[in-house]
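Chain A, query sequence.
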Amino acid sequence: MTSTPTDAALPAAEADVVLGDLGVLLLECGTSVTDVRGSLEQVSQRTVPRTSLEFAILPEMVMVSRPGSASATTTVIGKGEARTFRQSARASRLVHDLESGSTPLAEAPVRMASIRATPRRNPGLQNMIGCGLLSLSLAWLFRCPWWAIVLALLVGLLVGGLTMLMMRVRAAAAVAPFVSAFVSTVLVGAVAGWLDLGPVPLFAVCAPIAILVPGALITNALLELTSTDIVTGASRLMYGLIMLAFMAAGVYSGAALTGLRIDSASAALVGEAVRLTTDRGGWEALPPLWAAWIAVIVLAIGIGLAFGSGFRLTVVCVVVMTGTYAVLALFSPQVGSVVATGVAAAVLFIAARVLERLTLAIPATVSFQPAFLLLVPGTIGLVALASFDAQALVSAPMMFLSLCIGTKVGALLADLARITRSTVFLRWTKPARMGEL
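Chain A, predicted structure.
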């Protein structure tokens, strides 16, 4: 293991600040506190050798301490700004470069500043179009009638613009989930009442606000709780449940105001969508089954626009989403939707870790997170709270548990594979690198 002169010359206090800022950047990119701690430990072992460091990670704060040293604990606090997928990919590459020793710790502040300053063209327009495409594709994928698909696109565009405006004001951002859900439900209910459409499909209501559903947040919170990160996991879980309750209140209020009724026979999971049939034609007909693959591609493009992926990461998102849909469609009829969700989570997590290891510019958070919109545990919880459906109230926690267990099993298998590879092949192989995103 070679030493890095630049790191050796870096003062201890400054090195602690840089490591803390690196942890904050990873938190801003959506990395779990467990993974942030592991990354900081590996980076410190390479860049600050012969020094024992301890890290305490909170959702927006990183504390670095040196056991046995008289120096005070270094605390770095973030601003809570969410980073785009493209910025997350560049942050992941920086971590890998620091772990490998190709980049000294002294150069990290410049690269972190560059990552945070990564430009994004027309972010507002991209967000709005992304939300519209995401809403359209989810309604399409879950086989809503054509009228509902068109309506989901229009409402999704409006909700995307409304949410973007509200997020600019702290006070308004706190109630954005309620307002967005309320406005979306009122619009869908008003159109359904005007056209006398009767009960509407579930995703005609949920698709426009699916991007706000904290399914991934709640699942990550449960994973952190099982990793003994109690404080962070509990705080994230409470925040996710509060968001979910706000959205459920918005849906319930909008439905009560307009008399909207949700069709109990509509699909709530991918495995249920393939069983839907109808003898109606025209605007009330259902999309053909084969068109679901096109909907998955449109969904990936919408996610890419909404989260600032860039072209290459959007292509990765398309591959990940189609693979996830294939696993769900294959296993759901065989073992049921609950078990299929866990299987898909395990397979996807392993694939994400392999992709991250082989290609440094694609972190697991970027390739794994979009698939939560297909696994949709958060949408189930939203419907359960809004409709007070007893069956949905039972199914929602089972889906969360299945997703957590599948992810944990996938993490275990990925770690075992990584250990095998590191002891046998890592000495003479070098991971492939993509060009700068």
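Residues 123-423 form one domain. The mean pLDDT is 77.
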